[in-house]
């Protein structure tokens, strides 16, 4: 016999549960909007995070992306009329903080000091530049990296006016760049230096002594003490800023080109934390000067470099550096000072100095380097010089600093412009 009363109660219970689910689906977007609204005042002005939160408050279903060719107008970072050189920058992921170090000529050619500035509003404004290392030396090619808004790390080389008193230095700040401490790594003049910070304790660096030897050193206690060093090559030349990358404490990648034969481009790899190295020659067809490295994962590795005619090239490996393919990105203009960043295996951006047009330009690929779209950064100075430093943050934000030369060298900054739909 059918119990109609039980059936009716069961139907009513089902309707109640269904109604609760419908209500939850209906109010969920409003709950998310309220949470974003509460978080909004605590994020600094100018932050890309804040801009996107505001967009979602106004239109909660927005998706923010970068088209690969849109950039903000450039902003001058420094306030000095003195000649400046070799900027190195790093933007802290998921924040609006960007750090930059650069060298400033005090008395050319033998007295060049190290300076620091930062932005906490996504590059809209910059702090007053401060001198962070001055020993009356010629300071060369700093390389900067940060773990968060407080812990910043830098390596650089130096020597005195007579070419003596050589040193490669490591610097560290734990308060966002206000105070710095230093450790001398060796008595070699590191003319080209690169740093990679894996965690608060594990730090890797390479330096080029300008005589063919590229050396690797590491610290496992936050930079307090350092290994004596292992030789990667005795016939190589490095480049500024980003030529080393670590997957973990054991797996480390380094790129360099030959000293005696500039056309040789090498990929070096260590799987034992830098104790031993193996090197692979993967490009011999063109000069490989001014090289820059970006790593997506253990297998996916990207490199940009220039050839003998200063044309822009791109190389990639999809098997951890075992085999490589190379392509020409731009073949009609003279190009220098390229930097590369990748925020996925497909999306890659290269920023470089087009000497022919005297402009800073970008080359963007959304298909892993098969094709490229080239566009200038808006309002980039004419007569721009070399040295670019770049860091990718997310799918919609890439940051670059570079030198301009309208009245002596100046440091300029630009970031990607994104749209929300």
Keywords:
globular, four-stranded antiparallel sheet, 421 residues, single chain, 2 helices, mainly beta
Outline the structure in words.
The protein is mostly beta strands. The protein contains two helices and 31 strands. It has helices at 4-39, 48-58, and strands spanning 64-65, 75-76, 84-91, 98-107, 111-119, 130-133, 138-146, 152-159, 167-173, 181-186, 192-197, 203-208, 214-219, 230-233, 236-237, 244-246, 252-258, 265-270, 278-283, 289-295, 301-306, 312-317, 325-330, 335-342, 348-354, 359-365, 373-376, 388-394, 397-404, 410-415, 419-420. Strands 15, 16, 17, 18 and 19 form a five-stranded antiparallel beta sheet that branches. Strand 17 (252-258) and strand 18 form a beta hairpin. 45% of the residues are buried.
Structural class: mainly beta
Number of helices: 2
Rg from Cα: 25 Å
The largest pleated sheet is described as:
5 strands, antiparallel
Helix content: 10-25%
Strand content: 35-45%
What is the gist of this entry?
The protein has helices at residues 4-39, 48-58, and strands at 64-65, 75-76, 84-91, 98-107, 111-119, 130-133, 138-146, 152-159, 167-173, 181-186, 192-197, 203-208, 214-219, 230-233, 236-237, 244-246, 252-258, 265-270, 278-283, 289-295, 301-306, 312-317, 325-330, 335-342, 348-354, 359-365, 373-376, 388-394, 397-404, 410-415, 419-420.
């Amino acid at each position: 016999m059918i119990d109609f009363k039980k059936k009716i109660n069961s139907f009513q219970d089902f309707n109640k549960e269904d109604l609760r689910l419908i209500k939850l689906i209906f109010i969920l977007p409003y709950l998310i909007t309220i949470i974003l609204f509460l978080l909004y005042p605590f994020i600094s002005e100018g932050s890309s995070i804040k801009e996107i939160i505001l967009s979602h408050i106004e239109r909660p279903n927005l998706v923010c992306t970068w088209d690969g060719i849109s950039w903000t107008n450039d902003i001058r970072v420094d306030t000095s009329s003195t000649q400046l050189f070799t900027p190195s920058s790093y933007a802290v992921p998921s924040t609006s903080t960007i750090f930059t170090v650069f060298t400033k000529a005090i008395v050319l050619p033998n007295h060049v000091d190290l300076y620091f500035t930062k932005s906490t509003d996504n590059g809209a404004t910059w702090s007053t530049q401060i001198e962070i290392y001055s020993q009356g030396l010629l300071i060369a090619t700093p390389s900067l990296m940060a773990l968060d808004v407080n812990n910043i790390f830098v390596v650089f080389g130096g020597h005195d006016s007579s070419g003596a008193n050589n040193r490669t230095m490591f610097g560290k700040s734990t308060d966002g760049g206000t105070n710095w401490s230093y450790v001398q790594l060796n008595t070699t003049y590191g003319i080209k230096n690169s740093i990679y910070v894996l965690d608060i304790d594990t730090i890797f660096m390479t330096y080029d002594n300008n005589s063919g030897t590229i050396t690797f050193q590491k610290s496992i206690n936050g930079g307090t003490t350092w290994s004596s060093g292992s030789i990667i090559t005795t016939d190589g030349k490095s480049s500024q800023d980003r030529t080393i990358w670590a997957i973990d404490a054991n797996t480390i990648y380094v790129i360099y080109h030959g000293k005696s034969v500039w056309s040789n481009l090498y990929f070096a790899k260590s799987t034992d934390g830098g104790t031993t190295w193996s090197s692979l020659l993967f490009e011999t067809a063109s000069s490989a000067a001014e090289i820059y490295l970006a790593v997506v994962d253990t297998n996916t590795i990207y490199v940009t470099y220039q050839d003998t005619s200063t044309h822009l090239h791109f190389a990639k490996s999809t098997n951890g550096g075992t085999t490589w393919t190379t392509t020409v990105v731009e073949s009609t203009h003279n190009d220098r000072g390229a930097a590369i960043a990748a925020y996925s295996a497909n999306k890659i951006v290269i920023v470089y100095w087009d000497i022919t047009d005297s402009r800073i330009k970008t080359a963007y690929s959304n298909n892993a380097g098969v094709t490229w779209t080239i566009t200038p950064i808006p309002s980039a100075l004419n007569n721009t010089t070399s040295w670019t430093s770049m860091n990718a943050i997310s799918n919609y934000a890439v940051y670059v600093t570079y030198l301009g030369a309208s009245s002596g060298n100046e440091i300029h900054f630009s970031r990607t412009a994104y749209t929300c739909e």
